[in-house]
């Protein structure tokens, strides 16, 4: 379990939050059914590093002023352009109680024919925090146009319950989209221009 170091912070005005961010801190909050909401701050670089080492849907150990909390990252607010984290919400959990979360669906390989398309990018699950898988990976090698991968085709670890119907489609193999008439015409025009330019260059050389 990855650890995240934090510090308590006083409830401040907007300017105080902006100053925190300028100094490399990310304001956040930790809350839960058995604790009072606590305003905290964590170093942005350390938080980014922890999130790269471990999936965000897994539990983390949050250390704040000598206290330790088992938490999950409930929400991250990022800058719409820069992508840096602006605010982080951490929810305190009990490692012996089931949690509800989502797990991404990933694809490997290439179909024999067609293009594999994700119909659902994630699935809902319920399990103990320590049993949360980082992802469900599906091998689409050898599939053909019209083939589908259902929820029932996933390999589910012991102790994990899915929140979806077993017959729901996760991946569908579709035909490669034919070029539109406009794109074909534009390509033909471009080829003619290129041929004309080539002929002109040859005549100039002569």
UniProtKB/TrEMBL annotation:
User: Does the keyword field hold Phosphoprotein?
Assistant: no
The record places domain Large ribosomal subunit protein bL25 L25 at 4-90
- Regions that span the bilayer: none
Residue ranges of the Large ribosomal subunit protein bL25 beta domain? 98-175
InterPro entries, alphabetically? Rbsml_bL25/Gln-tRNA_synth_N, Ribosomal_bL25/Gln-tRNA_synth, Ribosomal_bL25_b-dom, Ribosomal_bL25_C, Ribosomal_bL25_long, Ribosomal_L25_dom, Ribosomal_uL5_bac-type
Per the UniProt entry, the signal peptide is none
Q: Keyword set for this entry? A: Ribonucleoprotein, Ribosomal protein, RNA-binding, rRNA-binding
Task: Tell me the Gene Ontology biological-process terms attached to this UniProt entry.
Answer: translation
Keyword check for RNA-binding, yes or no: yes
Q: Which Pfam families match?
A: Ribosomal_L25p (PF01386), Ribosomal_TL5_C (PF14693)
An example of a Gene Ontology cellular component annotation for this protein is:
cytosolic large ribosomal subunit
**Tree of life domain:** Bacteria
List every stretch annotated Disordered.
185-206
Query: Example GO molecular function term?
Result: structural constituent of ribosome
What does the similarity note say? Belongs to the bacterial ribosomal protein bL25 family. CTC subfamily.
HAMAP family linked: Ribosomal_bL25_CTC
Q: What does this protein do?
A: This is one of the proteins that binds to the 5S RNA in the ribosome where it forms part of the central protuberance.
How does this polypeptide assemble, per the annotation?
Answer: Part of the 50S ribosomal subunit; part of the 5S rRNA/L5/L18/L25 subcomplex. Contacts the 5S rRNA. Binds to the 5S rRNA independently of L5 and L18.
Entry-linked NCBIfam families:
bL25_bact_ctc
The name on file for this protein is Large ribosomal subunit protein bL25
Identify the coding gene.
rplY
